[in-house]
């Protein structure tokens, strides 16, 4: 419960993640404070932050959780490891690019392994992973905190961003487009909180301007439709919607798979990991090689 509170910031959000009532979480946290003999929480309105003692205890809780994951992996390896279910969270284009081919391959090579897929934006998959709602998250590398030792990740593929232009745009038909030439256009971008929005804004900033955001959507098919309708221009990952290459150095999206630390050697995770790697043309590997 303390870990969930540290992740979500409020008792209500932590309770939702744990499928408990807020009062039950509050009571257990109060009991924990009494048991350890230290104040663990600092309350500021609805939000709660951890004291130094609380942060210390969370670090130990993370280590314990990783050991439990390793214990489950060891027990699974003791058996065949070829039967079970893995829950995967992935954004839509990675489902098309990687997850669906991996699922098809596993149905042949490991028919007793069930892969259950949840369509979820990359920035939302990591909280689900940490909450135990999914077993593997496919997300963008820049959404993972490099200092978060609760996660183990392995790279899948890298894709550039392309420019989407309306059919009647003056630059339509060009082989490449310089972002600086789009400074006076209206832009279609993702919603705040979506990492693609940050990439677009940084790329435009590096090109010398701030994009004039007129329309927003997290669905790249909708973005493409808006652009075709003449609503503006867009910059999107190539596997989501193919457009016109950026002249010079294009922004990149590095796609990775992440699992909870300690579960990386679970045989089911290993089977899924290697199926994902095969789908992008990488050789299978053990975790020690990754």
UniProtKB/TrEMBL annotation:
Recorded family membership: Belongs to the LysR transcriptional regulatory family.
Recorded superkingdom: Bacteria
Protein name: DNA-binding transcriptional LysR family regulator
Organism encoding this protein: Saccharothrix saharensis
Ranges of residues in domain HTH lysR-type: 1-51
GO CC list: protein-DNA complex
UniProt entry tagged with the keyword Transcription regulation: yes
Keywords per UniProt: DNA-binding, Transcription, Transcription regulation
Keyword Transcription regulation: yes
């Amino acid at each position: 419960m303390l870990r969930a509170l540290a992740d979500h910031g409020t008792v209500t959000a932590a309770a939702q993640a744990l499928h408990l009532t807020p009062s039950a979480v509050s009571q257990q946290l109060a009991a924990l404070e009494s048991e350890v003999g230290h104040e663990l929480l600092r309350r500021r309105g609805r939000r709660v932050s951890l004291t130094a003692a609380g942060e210390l205890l969370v670090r130990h809780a993370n280590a314990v959780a990783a050991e439990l994951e390793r214990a489950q992996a060891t027990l699974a390896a003791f058996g065949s490891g070829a039967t079970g279910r893995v829950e995967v969270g992935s954004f839509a284009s990675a489902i098309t690019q990687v997850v669906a081919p991996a699922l098809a391959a596993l149905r042949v090579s490991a028919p007793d392994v069930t892969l259950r897929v949840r369509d979820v934006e990359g920035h939302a998959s990591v909280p689900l992973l940490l909450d135990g709602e999914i077993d593997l998250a496919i997300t963008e590398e820049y959404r993972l905190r490099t200092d978060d030792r609760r996660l183990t990740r392995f790279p899948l593929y890298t894709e550039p961003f392309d420019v989407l232009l309306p059919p009647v745009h003056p630059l339509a038909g060009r082989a490449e487009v310089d972002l600086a030439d789009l400074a006076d256009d209206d832009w279609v971008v993702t919603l705040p909180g979506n990492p693609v929005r940050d990439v677009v804004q940084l790329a435009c900033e590096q090109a010398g301007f701030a994009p004039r955001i007129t329309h927003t959507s997290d669905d790249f098919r909708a973005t493409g439709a808006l652009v075709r309708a003449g609503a503006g221009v867009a910059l999107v990952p190539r596997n989501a919607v193919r457009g016109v290459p950026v002249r010079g150095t294009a922004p990149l999206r590095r796609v990775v798979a992440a699992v909870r630390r300690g579960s990386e050697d679970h045989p089911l995770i290993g089977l899924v990991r290697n199926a994902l790697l095969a789908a992008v043309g990488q050789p299978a590997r053990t975790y020690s090689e990754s």
